[in-house]
Amino acid sequence: MQGHLRSLAAAATAALLLSACGAGAPEGGQAAAESATIDYWLWDVAQQPQYQACADAFQKANPNYKVKITQYGWDDYWNTLTTAFVSGTAPDVFVSHLSRYPDFAAQGTILPIDDQVAKDKVDLSLYQDGLADLWVTKDGKRYGLPKDFDTVAVIYNSELLKDAGLKPEDMEKLEWNPKDGGSYEKTIAHLTVDKNGKRGDEPGFDKTKVAVYGIGLAGSGAGFGQTEWSMYAMSNGWQYADQNPWPSRFNYADPKFKETITWFTSLIDKGYMPSMAIAGAGVNQMDAYGAGKYAMVTEGSWNTKSYWNMKGVKSVLAPTPVGPTGKRASLFNGLADNISAATDNPDAAWAWVKFLGSPACQEEIVADEAVIFPAIKSARTRAEQAFGKLGIDVKPFTMHVEEGTTHLAPIADHWADITATMTETMDAIFSRKADVSSLDGANERVNGLFG
């Protein structure tokens, strides 16, 4: 892979970047770092190879350090991590999420890195505007260096689009509204086909016997809905809370949110989108799309390459639809690495975190792997070029950054409790076991967490 071919060049850069990170250096001199194995956890199997390439370069520049990478699936990752904190077996460093790290910081299970950033003069201006600030808590302490950013777009099956008599340019100018769904819903309906060959917008369509759904469903989205409903709600003028980051009141009972969810779940009732029972029947959204069961899906940029690697499916990207605000919308999310407070090797852990946040990793290795968009500004163009070499035009993702239609992912205290409440509520709404009016009580419970 390309990242491995660049490891030698990256290693030379890494040596310079990390020369000040040696553990136990006496005043006036630099001592060799003590040997240490750094346990590093991540959840995305698609990203593991690129970070192994970074680890190879890091170890070459720092032969006393070894990085041991462990990968867990998203569903198991956080429970395993929480258990590890309790049992004293937590990793030295782990990939963290903007919605999760505030709770870890409040619990004292992760270490702030302000002193290290200042000592080593890490240039925070290298990162996409605003990303570095997201990893600073209310008390002003920093807990991470940005490693990537992501947005949301539409991925569609070009053969199914052609069969429907639609063209790629038709997908680039779609709009939606909560009253009738606009041209977006019309397209979804036309892409839907029942087992008798009738389309969703044709007389005789049987919504109980659908062969191809116009749009897929990953789940209810709980209180986050990044790839499910966030792009619709925000382009309808809705915001998650009174402020972001660190809100004191959430807006899940807002009429704009309710009407968005009412419209979105109506696609299930019309047979254009699978029910929760079908979506949760053991075949995930990506696999169902690959099997030709979904004509299109809304997805995050981090999954793009996985869709393009599917056999027998030719995919194309399209922008999210323009909403009632007259603009598109996408959550703007990003990851960073946290250092466990229980680490036995804080100097080694920081050296690894610093390298993961450096051009030596992000620009020289990660960008060329065409899996994610690195957080470092100068690496984005390189990543776009790498995607382009694979025949993937990622403009539907990056246009949000260029056009200013991004919205920060919610960063809040009590997110685990918020998620529990909203998972129960949204699952019930999407399963048609509860009305959107249940969002009133859920919002009261969420806001009750903040006093």
UniProtKB/TrEMBL annotation:
Main location: other
Domain of life according to the entry: Bacteria
This protein's record includes keyword tRNA processing: no
Xref: InterPro entries: Bact_solute-bd_prot1, SBP
Compartments, record wording: Cell envelope
Database matches in CDD domains: PBP2_TMBP_like
Key word Transmembrane present: no
Keyword annotations from UniProtKB, A to Z: Signal, Transport
Region forming the signal peptide: 1-25
A Pfam family: SBP_bac_8
Transmembrane segments: none
CC terms in the record's Gene Ontology section: cell envelope
Family the UniProt entry places it in: Belongs to the bacterial solute-binding protein 1 family.
UniProt xrefs under PANTHER family: ARABINOSE-BINDING PROTEIN-RELATED, SN-GLYCEROL-3-PHOSPHATE-BINDING PERIPLASMIC PROTEIN UGPB
Protein's name in the database: Sugar ABC transporter substrate-binding protein
Native source species: Nonomuraea glycinis
Organism placement in taxonomy: Bacteria, Bacillati, Actinomycetota, Actinomycetes, Streptosporangiales
